[in-house]
């Protein structure tokens, strides 16, 4: 090294009035917290640990429930199912009730669908001959 270590000199100042106690104050008090209550500290630690664990578990469960609900609303929605049910009901109604053109070509050819009950009767009559 190129230089000697240097230290800050110690300063000994005169103590303030606050540090001096008079006889009117009585005997000095015992030290506060000199002997910790380990059982109470352990109970407080376990209580804190339990509280943090329950908070984390509640947050986790809430997050999973919330995301499952969101996923069901956004991804697994029933809008396509509603369209299908409307189509199914109208098709079933057309099969049960009346005469319907299949498409434009069938309409030009004069082909229609029969009600299901009429078609059933015609098939049975044909096989009874």
Please render the helix and strand layout as text.
Blueprint: H1 38-74, H2 79-97, E1 100-101, H3 104-109, E2 112-113, H4 116-128
Antiparallel strand pairs: 1-2
* Average residue pLDDT: 83
Largest sheet: 2 strands, antiparallel
Per DSSP E runs of 2 or more residues, the count of β-strands stands at 2
The helicity comes to 55-70%
Rg over C-alpha atoms, rounded to the nearest angstrom = 46 Å
pLDDT below 50 for ≥5 consecutive residues: which ranges? Answer: none
Number of helices: 4
| Sheet with the most strands: spatial strand order | 1-2
Structural domain count: 2
Morphology call = rod-shaped
Provide a compact summary of the structure.
This protein has 4 helices and 2 strands.
Descriptive notes:
There is one protein chain. With 129 residues, the protein is mostly helical. The chain has 2 domains: 37-77; 79-129, no CATH class. It has 4 helices and 2 strands. The chain has helices at 38-74, 79-97, 104-109, 116-128, and strands spanning 100-101, 112-113. It has a two-stranded antiparallel sheet with strand order 1-2. The longest helix has 37 residues, at 38-74. It starts with 37 loop residues before the first helix and ends with a helix. The model has no long low-confidence stretch (mean pLDDT 83).
Keywords summarizing the entry:
two-stranded antiparallel sheet, 3% strand, mainly alpha, 129 residues, single chain
């Amino acid at each position: 090294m190129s230089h000697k270590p240097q230290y800050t000199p110690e300063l000994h100042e005169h103590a303030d009035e606050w540090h001096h106690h008079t006889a009117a104050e009585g005997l000095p008090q015992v030290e506060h917290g000199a002997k910790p209550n380990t059982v109470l500290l352990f109970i407080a630690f376990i209580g804190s640990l339990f509280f943090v664990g329950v908070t984390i578990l509640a947050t986790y469960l809430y997050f999973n429930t919330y995301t499952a609900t969101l996923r069901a609303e956004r991804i697994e929605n029933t809008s396509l199912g509603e369209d299908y049910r409307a189509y199914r009901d109208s098709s079933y109604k057309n099969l049960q009730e009346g005469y319907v053109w299949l498409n434009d070509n069938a309409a030009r050819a004069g082909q229609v669908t029969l009600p299901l009950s009429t078609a059933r009767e015609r098939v049975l009559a044909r096989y009874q001959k």
